[in-house]
Amino acid sequence: MKNFALFAFFAFLVAGFLSGCASDGPKGEGGSKAQGGPGGAVSASSRSQAGAREDAREGGQAGAPSQRISDSAASSLSSASSLSAALPAGGFDGSATDSSPARRASPKMSMEDFSEKIARADTKNVSLARKKLLDILGEQARFFKRMGNDTRLKEIETISAYRRIMSLWEGYFLENPNDVEARIIYGKFLRSTGKASDAYAEFCAADKLDPSIAVVKQQMATFEAETGLVKESYAHICDAVRLEPDNAVYVWQAAKLMVSRRDVLEEHLKLSPEEYDKKYLSFYARAAELEPSSASFQTDYALSFYDAAKPDWNAALRQWKRAEKLAALNLDRQIVLANMARVLIELNRDDEAEKLLEGVTLDSIAGVKSALLAEIERARKEGVSRKVPERKTYSY
Question: How many independent structural domains does the chain possess?
Answer without folding.
Answer: 1
